[in-house]
Design a protein that fits this description.
Helices cover about 55% and strands about 15% of the residues. The chain is α+β, with helices and mostly antiparallel strands and about 180 residues long. The protein has 2 domains: about 90 residues, no CATH class; about 80 residues, Nuclear Transport Factor 2, Chain: A (Roll), CATH 3.10.450. Strands 1-2-3-4 form a 4-stranded antiparallel β-sheet, with helices on one face. β2 and β3 form a beta hairpin. α1 packs across α4. The chain starts with a helix and ends with a helix. About 15% of the residues are buried.
């Protein structure tokens, strides 16, 4: 009964300790799964004017069009986090380091197609723990993953051990009755 009690107590306290993070991971993971289906989570990728990759504006020209928008999250080149190129839709997606801002530019004409906030980036930072802080992202979230693995195996043990004991007791009683 010692192992059962040990697993019962540790399973209970690990579960209670990890519950908040598991709830956060579940909710944010669910929202991230649906991000392409809801524009409020992630703005849909616009479609640019017809043309070939050879017709695309240079990134510098497209960047100048972003700067012309006078968006506070895109005031200088240092504000730029990344540029996604979507050749099939003929769009450049400029993403800022600030406020999860995104500006989509037609890769052929240079017209600004969309200015929006990517809530999915914020949800992802909650999901991976980086919003709370780098130590949470680097140490706590991997620990939560280990806790989940422990909860699975200790839960299986807690379910299986009474069945094993019952089986052994029946076998032992059958041997005694036969003797």
């Amino acid at each position: 009964m010692n192992t059962f009690r040990f697993f019962w107590n540790t399973h209970k306290w690990v579960g209670i300790s990890a519950a908040t993070f598991l709830l956060l991971l579940s909710i944010t993971g669910f929202l991230l799964l649906l991000k392409k289906d809801f524009a409020w989570i992630q703005p849909p990728t616009q479609k640019g004017a017809p043309g070939q990759v050879a017709d695309f504006l240079s990134l510098d020209d497209a960047w100048q069009n972003v700067l012309a928008e006078k968006h506070p999250a895109f005031a200088a080149e240092d504000d730029l986090d990344r540029v996604d190129v979507r050749p099939a839709k003929r769009v450049y997606k400029f993403r800022s380091k600030h406020d999860h801002a995104e500006i989509q530019v037609d890769a052929v004409t240079g017209a600004v197609l969309s200015t929006a906030t990517r809530e999915s980036d914020f949800i992802e930072s909650l999901h991976d723990g980086s919003w709370i802080g780098e130590p949470v992202h680097a140490y706590v979230m991997p620990l939560v993953a280990i806790c989940v693995v422990f909860l699975v195996f200790s839960g299986l043990w807690l379910w299986l051990e009474p069945h094993v004991k019952r089986y052994r007791r029946k076998r032992r009683d059958a041997k005694r009755a036969a003797a």
